[in-house]
Structure formats: C-alpha cells, structure tokens
C-alpha cells in the first residue's frame, strides 16, 4: 500500500507520518512540491491524504484555487487513486449525538469551505473519496508551537498556561479524540477500503474542565483558575455520533485512553518547558 501525505508540519501530518511509516510505503511532500505535477505522478499511489491548507481557505469565502483538496482531486479524476479528505465537525448544527445525515449549518468561512469541498470531491470522485468529519483533535509536538494557521483547543490551553492561568469551564462539554487514536482509525479505514462519510470522535460528552485537568496534570507550578467569560457562540456544547465508524472499523474508543494520552502530552510539554 502506497500512501502520499501532503503537508509536513501540521499536527495531523506529523502523527500520520510517524505511524504510517511503520505500516505503509509512505511518501511525504509539501503542497508546492506537487502543485504542478501531472496526473501520472499520482497514479503510483493508492491513497492521498492532504494535511495542508492556506490562510485564504480558512478565513475567506470559497475560491477553487485555494481549495488544495479539490485541485488534487482534479488531477486523479481519471485514475484509481483514492483521496482522504479531512473535514470538520464545524459543518454541523451543534447539538448532541450528531449523525452524519444530520443538519449542516456551517457558521464561518472555514466550515462553509469544508462543506463545499466535500460536495465537489463527491461529485468528481464518487466512491473514491473518504470524508472524515473530525472532532477536536488532541495532540502536541513542540515544533508546532510557533507555526499555526488557526488555533485549536490545545493551542489555547498551552497559551493560557504560559500566561499563568487556566480557564474554568463549568458544565461546558464538547467532543475530542487523540491524534494517536485518529491515526489508528485512518489506518483501519484504509485497510478496509472504506469510502463515504464518517464522524471521527469519541462520541461522548467530554467536559472541558476534565480535559484541562488532564493536560495540566504534570504542571509543577500552581496556576490561577479564571472563570471563562464566553460569548454565546463559544458556549455551544455538542458531541458526535460515531456508531457508523465503530461498526465499520470495530475500533474501541474510551475516555480512559483519552485521559492517558492527555497526561502523556502534559508530561512531554512540561518536561520540555521546565
């Protein structure tokens, strides 16, 4: 199995590269390195996973030139190569137990663009595209600390830690999955020749105070606890329904695994920092 991963420095790509190199023939390129490649270049791969993006795609209204995944899809349209698209849970109307077929309500340009990309890839690749609607991803690598196109929950947590405080988020919950578990899920989906749309998440209410406590577990210094003054938009709670994923892959996802992974991240971060 030959996998092409596009993007070298994102949290997802680093995790995939590290894990996939043990199990697949894994090739890594930056988007600029493949941007002008002809279709024949891509034909030698079984799967392409694009982990790169750009600021215009994240912040501005949709333009096809900013949609790297669509540009890649056009190059493989006449081949047998499959594409894995990393979409977002933000395309949904936020609520509990969100299924893949539930109402979509993207609120920002990023999520609107993700939904448009999904539709365009399905239109031209049909059953050769695998779409993963990913919840909040928990992972850490020290080389990412200064290079971010957009901030994730864990980025905000570590920024606050550096300022000497954590935020109290009583009764606020979302859905999370570790980068480590995420890579194992993608591997299983590839091996089972999956296509279509899957929610990728823990599939449970995960309270932010718990995540923060786990991530702060190995902090040798005391920090202030500050009440989080949230806007209406940030008060949104949700979790995804992941039954389709679990039934297909037979993978088990537990909160204890997520807790252990958060504590490992905590140990790595505070060891590196202090």
Notes on the protein architecture:
This protein is α/β, with parallel strands linked by helices. 39% of the residues lie in helices and 18% in strands. It has helices at 11-20, 31-34, 39-42, 55-59, 68-75, 109-125, 153-163, 179-191, 208-215, 243-249, 255-273; strands at residues 2-6, 25-29, 47-50, 82-88, 129-134, 136-138, 165-168, 173-174, 176-178, 196-200, 206-207, 224-227. The strands form 4 sheets. The chain has a 6-stranded parallel sheet, with helices on both faces. The protein has a two-stranded parallel sheet with strand order 6-9. Helix 6 links the parallel strand 4 and strand 5. Helix 1 crosses helix 8 (179-191) and helix 5 (68-75) runs parallel beside helix 6 (109-125). The longest helix has 19 residues, at 255-273.
